[in-house]
TrEMBL record, chains A, B:
Coiled coil: none
Pfam families in the cross-refs: PDH_C (PF20463), PDH_N (PF02153)
Prephenate/arogenate dehydrogenase domain residues: 6-295
Protein name per the record: prephenate dehydrogenase
GO biological process, one term: tyrosine biosynthetic process
UniProt catalytic activity: prephenate + NAD(+) = 3-(4-hydroxyphenyl)pyruvate + CO2 + NADH
Cytoplasm as UniProt keyword: no
Pathway listed: Amino-acid biosynthesis; L-tyrosine biosynthesis; (4-hydroxyphenyl)pyruvate from prephenate (NAD(+) route): step 1/1
Length: 315, 315
């Protein structure tokens, strides 16, 4: 592939930024990669591993002459970084980010983008539970979605160029407006994560059931909650604080619905429960048909000793 | 291995019973296997596949001369079956079951067990989303837990024999009393399933987010909810109706906790959220350390196209 941006500056050098660096180099779509991280150890690692050509102690130095600047810091930290780099951005450059929430990022960053610089927010739906500069790998975005949420000010050419860049790293790219992105993610990600955190918390301090039992028998369904509840606390704190309205909206619907089912259990309304559970199966089939998951029992999960295979029909 | 029960009768020939038949034959721990299913097609399948030596149109004929009788029907159907077979059980025989709830099964079955016959309830924590006589396979119970909940009347010899039988089929066996079993399962399985059913239901009828989007971006966390929400509606209806008290108890704790976090989001109490999310990570680590799951990103799930790999750090 040919070079899409002559110089890319990565602000923040964690899992996502380091994976992007590996991926863009593998694809040959970046001329050079500059990086900035607050921690000197992280900057050193970036050079040692070799996914950055140069690293800088300040974000302002890192963005100098960059054609693409990617903000890969927690959502809560973006406003300060944007204010810092704004005056140092090269005319014609494009600023993007990888935040999990988009309206808040736009509010934090857009005001600091000068005339003649584009801002195209992005959110790659990819990650692992690991973090830091050592955790990145080139294939992280392959066949994953990257959602672009252009603002009215984003020039179509700038959006098209960023799309080509993400496609070059192997991602499938979709565009939607920021409020819709935040609602969709509240449904498919943010609320499920809060619920998982909650269920794991309940199990954690339940006295009559020892943690050892919870862990031992976790394959009975609970384990999948612990997986999604294992994500980075700082990132998730920022997600809920910055996607507050959509999350509270979906949470409200969730609790209404849960109370309806709770009442059906209390009233022993078997018909209502059966009808409800029958409806929810269809979505799962849709996900398998859409190739979003495997139909193999337990997703073809690598079985571990002691009941590791998740249970679908029989708990 | 040597024969543990000369004759085993399976009442109900679905996923669990057919898997037991395959497993006990492979291990050579059953002299002969008799089966009963209401549906003639199922009985025919059992003979064609060959996991039963004989099938019977009535449960009473199937249990004749059986040394072990396994009730593998939905929990709601056990009382009627027990009443039917009670008078036909062979003296010295052992009756067991595979129900997901144990107190309700004991209440339904125990009154029908005659003098001189043992009753040892059991619950293998294993299954897949598939069902019926064709879905069984010999390795289903390998390295899975099977929980025995003996009653005060169960003779230790009978319990030991059933334990050896399940170990012969590859399971790890634990014993606990029925009320504790029902509470543990309410925490690790029943409540998580109800919550998953609910979240999937919310997404299903959310108008502003099309199902296609929910499915397309499901790898962002939601997919794991759809997996556990895909289980058999009849089985789950019976689970919630028969483990009502424990499920309502855990649900109550869950909603209290959820409201606390919901309030923290509304009040923008980032510290409380961060502290909570940090605590829940420990349980996940415990599960990986205990060998209940793999630490490989996304559990080493077989990646499917279009974002199938689950996202741990970045939604």
């Amino acid at each position: 592939m040919s070079v899409i941006y002559q110089r890319v500056a990565l602000i923040g050098l964690g899992l996502i930024a380091s994976s992007m660096a590996h991926a863009m180099r593998e694809a040959g779509i970046a001329g050079s990669v500059a990086g900035h991280a607050k921690s000197e150890a992280t900057r050193k690692a970036a050079l040692e591993i070799g996914f950055c050509d140069e690293v800088f102690a300040t974000a302002t130095d890192a963005v100098k002459d960059a054609d693409l600047v990617v903000l890969a810091v927690p959502v809560g930290a973006m406003a300060a970084i944007a204010a810092e780099i704004g005056p140092h951005l090269k005319p014609g450059a494009c600023v993007s980010d990888v935040g999990s929430v988009k309206q808040a990022v736009i509010e934090a960053v857009a005001p600091h983008i000068p005339e003649g610089v584009d801002f195209v927010p992005a959110h790659p739906l990819a990650g692992t539970e690991h973090s830091g500069p050592h955790s990145g790998f080139a294939s992280l975005f392959r066949n994953r979605w990257c959602l672009l949420t252009p603002t009215p000010q984003s020039r179509p050419e700038a959006v098209a160029q960023l799309r080509a860049f993400w496609e070059g790293m192997g991602a499938n790219v979709d565009e939607m407006d920021a409020p819709h992105h935040d609602l969709v993610l509240a449904v498919v990600s943010h609320t499920p994560h809060l619920i998982a955190f909650t269920m794991v918390g309940v199990a954690d301090h339940l006295r009559r059931v020892s943690n050892s039992e919870v862990i031992k028998y976790s394959a009975s369904g609970f384990r999948d909650f612990t997986r999604i509840a294992a994500s980075d606390p700082t990132m998730w704190r920022d997600v809920f604080l910055t996607n507050k309205e959509a999350t509270l909206d979906i949470l409200g619907r969730f609790t209404e619905e849960l109370f309806m089912l709770q009442r059906a259990i209390r009233m022993e309304d078997g018909e209502q429960l059966h009808a409800y559970f029958t409806r929810t199966r269809a979505i799962r089939r849709g996900i398998i048909d859409a190739g979003q998951d495997t139909a193999a029992p337990d997703f073809g999960r690598v079985a571990a000793a002691g009941g590791a295979t998740a249970l679908k029909g029989k708990e």
